[in-house]
Structure formats: C-alpha cells, structure tokens
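Quick question, first post here. What does this chain look like in 3D?
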Amino acid sequence: MTGQLAFVESPVQLLNVLEWAHTQGGRPAPATGGSTDATSLTVVVLSPTDPMSRGQLRRMAQLARDEGLTVHWQEARGGRGALVRTLRQLARPLRSAERVIIGDPFSRYVQLLLTLFAPRHLTVVDDGTATMEYAAQLGRGERLVRWHRKGNLGPRELVLAPVTTLARRKLAPTRGRTVEIFTSLPVEAPPGVTVTGNTYAWTRDTFGPPLLTGGADLVGTSLVETGVVDADHYARVVSELARAHGATRYFAHRRESAEKLHRIAVETGLQVVRPDLPLELIARRGPIGRTVVSFPSTVVHTLPLALAGTGVKVAVIEIAPEWLRATASPRAQGFLSGVAGTAAHEVDRLTARAAHPADRLEFG
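> Answer (accepted):
Ran it through. Tokens below.
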C-alpha cells in the first residue's frame, strides 16, 4: 500500500512537493517495496514533452531521491497508447493511496486520474499563480478554467467538459475527503479547505546563502507565448528594465520560445540564462543580483521567501493594459494586477506608461 502519492508535471510542482514533505517532519520516509507506512511518499512524474521541462524535472527528481523519496518517471505523453498504459500502471497505487498530492488542478491528465480514483485526502501544491485562481473558482463553485483562457468552450473543451465537471467535485472537500492547499501565495481558503503556508524552509535549509553580484537580474515570463502580452511591448520593456537597473542577465522561463529569447539577447545585450532548476533554487545557490526584477508571476511571492535574510531586493513590473493582445482573455488584466498587487510588502512595484514606444518606465 502506498501511503501518499504525488503527481507532478513540472519542476516547480516537484520542488513544492519537497517543501510539503519537509513540513511533515523533516526528511520523508522512503516507500520501500510493499510498505504500508502511511507516512511514505512516492512521486510519479507525468513527464511533459518539452525538453526544458524534462531536463529540469530530471534534476529535481534526483534531488527528491537524495531526500529519500521514491520517484517513478512515467512517459505519460509518450505517443499512442501512453494514456491507457499510464492509467493501467497507476490504478493500483491510486486505489490504495491515503493521500494524493497534485500540483495543477487544471491539468486534464490529473483531472482524468481524479475522476477514476477519489482519494480520502487531497493536497494541492503550487504550480505558479494558478493556485490563486483554483482557490477562487472552488470557493465560487465555478468550473475550473485557466485564467488566460477565453470564456468560450472550443471543441476540445466541450469533449472534456464532463471530465472537468466531475474533477471539480473530486477537488472539493466532502464528508469523506479533506482538501489542503499548500501555498506561498495569498490564498483565501474556500469553505472546508485547509490552507497551509509554504515558507520555502527546505530550500533555505538545503542551499545557500548565495553570493550576491552587483546590478540586477531580470526574470522572464511566458506571457507572450500564452497569447496574453504583445511581443513588441514585451521586448521594449525588457530593454528599458535592463538599462534602468544595470541588469546583465535574463533568466528565461522554461516555456519561452527560442526566437523571442534570441531577439532579447540581440536587442538588449543581456545574457540569456536557461536555468536547469526552478529559479528559487538557482537564486538560493547563487550567484544572484542584489535586485531581481520580474513580471507578475509566482516568483514575486516565492523569491522573497527563498532569499529571506540574504539582502536581495525583489521588484515586480506591473502589466499595463496597452501591452495586452486583442486575443487575451478579458480576465487577464485583473488577474495579473492581482498577482502584482498581492506580492509581499517588501517587494517593490514598478509601473509603466506603455501607450507609445517613446514612453518610459517609472521606477518607485
């Protein structure tokens, strides 16, 4: 019997599973063959297809093994028959798991697993700012929709609508099921849900403190790739930020396109860095700039925790409405403003006038 079973699809999810395990009493107990220990934790990596995510997950999986976790790498998207094969292999451990830990309640893969097997205890760890939207939608009783998606259902969403509807019920607390959200984000607990704070204690205990460099580092975002922010506005603002803060490095998001990163390197002279681990670990290990400037994303909440006591200053650049593409979801501006506005009080907020290329950023 498997005591606790975690499904992860991204490096950040696996990092936060490690953080959750750390709060349960230090290094987690390994799940040895045939163990019925309710405290044992097995991690199943539902491997994505993009090389950057796979590479970071491989590194994170080794860190998890070093901490005593059992990690199974599952090629869940490995061509024809992968879904059926994965469901068959996971059926038994899912049925016997007392607790299931997931990182992305919006994942169609995870939703399908939960429709087939309902755990007695469910923990949701962060996979970015989507945790805020999950908690809000759960509290309002709405269907689960990612914040950057348009409101209308496409053909694929219509086919999967029954799965999403059933999964929403399995992601909510009932008389026979507890739900915990383990998060570093400012989340208001939906009725019946327990919210546990993630302070990044494992990260601080394991790495650093980092060597600090002069100047600043910029943190990239995939808002262009998800169709939210206009590419030209984004490139111009990155250039403005680099000049204003004396930045030399640009830490790329794992989903940023090679074409966009090449443009940034050519137009700004920044050294584009593709991290091999989540940024919280990269920053904690160092070296890292004395100032880290980010667009609205999870790192404006996580980096102040991971870098607590190091003297590093984190700043967030607010997204102006003019940056948004016409195809962006109507909810995008409000959601991104909420991410920036709820950042920790020690995080600087940078505003911009972005209606015309001649405009300049205002730094506070």
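Residues 51-66 form the longest helix (16 residues).
The radius of gyration is 20 Å.
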